[in-house]
Every structure is written in C-alpha cells, then in structure tokens.
Amino acid sequence: MIASLLTTALELAGAGVPVLPLRAGKLPFGNCPACRGNACGGRPNMKTVGACVCPAPCHGWAAATTDTAVLTARPWAAAWREARAVAYHPGGAGLTVVDLDNADAITWAREHLPTTRTVATTRGEHWIYLGAMQSANAVRTGVDIKSSMSYARWLGPGTGLMVDLPDAVRALPVKERPASQHGRVTVPLPASAGGGCLHRTPAYLERGIAMAEERISEARSAVHHTVYRVFLAVLSAHGRCGCLTEHHVQRLFHAAQAKGESPRHCTTAWANARTTLGV
After folding, report:
1. Is the dihedral of CA 177, 179, 181, 185 positive or negative?
2. What percent of the chain has pLDDT over 90?
C-alpha cells in the first residue's frame, strides 16, 4: 500500500500535479504545534516573516508539492508510512474539481454543466475542468468546488475529455448566495495623495510590479497557485484605479512563462483573479 501510494504520488508530481499524503479519515496530516490553528497563515517552508518553517508536512493543501526529492526524503517518508490515500491540490495544477456528493447533485450537473472528465467517488462523482478558481463549499446541496486553497483525493484519471472551466461553475459561489452575504469581494481603494491616484506614482507602481515578478521567479513548487495569488495581489492593489497597462500585465505573464506556465494558464489565472475580486 505504501509503495503504491508513493508511486502514484511521484507519477502525479512528475506530471506537474502538486500532491500530499492523507491519513485515515481522508484528512491531511496535522499542523505542527507551533502552527496549530493556521497561526502562520498556512504558508509552509517559506523563509519569510510569520511563515512556517516546519520540518514536517503541514497545513493540508499548502503542503502539496511537485518536488519528487521532497516527497521521498525525510520527513515525508514517515508521513507516507502512515498515509491511506493520495491527495492533490487542483488549483496548483490549474484545475477545478466540482465535487458532486450524491445522485441528485449528479443529475443537476448533467442538466446544467458541460460534460468533462469524470471520476467516480464513494458517493458521487468529481467533474474536473481546466482552469482554477477560488474554492467554495456547499454552493448547492451536495456540491462543493475544490480548486485554489483546497485538496481533493486522487481516485484515478477518470474518463472523458477535460474541457475549460465554464462560466456556469465560476458563477456558483456568487449565484447561490444573497447579495447581503457579499458573494463578491469589494476591494477598497487607498486614499489619493494630493488629489491624484497614489498608484500612478511611477516608483510606487514599479516597485509593486517588480515585487510581483520576484515572487513568481522565486517559486519552487505549486507554481500555478503562486502565479494566481500574485495576480490576485496585483489586482487587489492596482486593479480598480486604471493604473495597470498592457505592458505591466505582459511583464507578469513573461515572469510566469519563464517558470513554465503556458500563455493559456496565464490568461486563465488572470481571468480567475479578476473574477474573484470583481474587477
């Protein structure tokens, strides 16, 4: 069992899918005592202020990696000895899983969503689409979305042709909630300095774009997720005041492509970030 799970994990990692071990109960291995309750923000093994430098697999989805050397070395080896399943981070692989938990949910999906790759689960099905978005639970009865900042069990490659993430799925977290619950994120704008937009100060904007390029370039694993989070941060700061130009966007795309991202993945990540923020 252990050898089989690790072999599967290594094959997935080699294909660019970030993986992690699950213990009994389909749960990730627990946070270390110093980071229990996600006190460090769920960012393992990053040499930044407030981030986790734990020696063990930690923080669930955030521990997923494509680094085969990490997967086979201490302390991951100990985790695999206790593992009962392999999980993966869909968002980190540029994917979204629509988790259909019962027959009624499957019937609804067949009537409202485009057919895509399907994987049978214990009680229902996973429908897997190309493209990442923010994860959300209970968007409908028996329907969860697993993508960014989430994990899904690996249950095999499934059947059928995988298609692009449709707008019908992207809209589910917003459509199913009343407006009073703030389904969309409103990004507050900083106060303007001297009556002008602070972001238009060349040094301010340049520093922000340069830091974003550096963050992408320094990514060692989960590149898909890193690119999405950086795009999200840039749009949070500059996306609503008209400061960003095509030149700035292309700089970010070039940094991502230098890490192996395709133009399509860049476009999808940018669109997903805009959708998340409502810009």
Report:
1. positive
2. 30
pLDDT exceeds 90 at position 262: no
Token reading at 111: 């009537």
Radius of gyration of the chain (CA): 20
* Residues across the chain: 279
Cβ neighbors of 276 (< 8 A, separation 6 or more) are 133, 134, 185, 232
Checking 231-237 for CB contacts under 8 A at 24+ apart, the result is: 231/269, 231/270, 231/272, 231/273, 232/273, 232/276, 232/277, 234/208, 234/209, 235/187, 235/273, 235/274, 235/277, 235/279, 236/187, 236/277, 237/199, 237/208
pLDDT score at 112: 94
Most confident option among 7-11, 254-258, 268-272: 7-11
pTM, two decimal places: 0.60
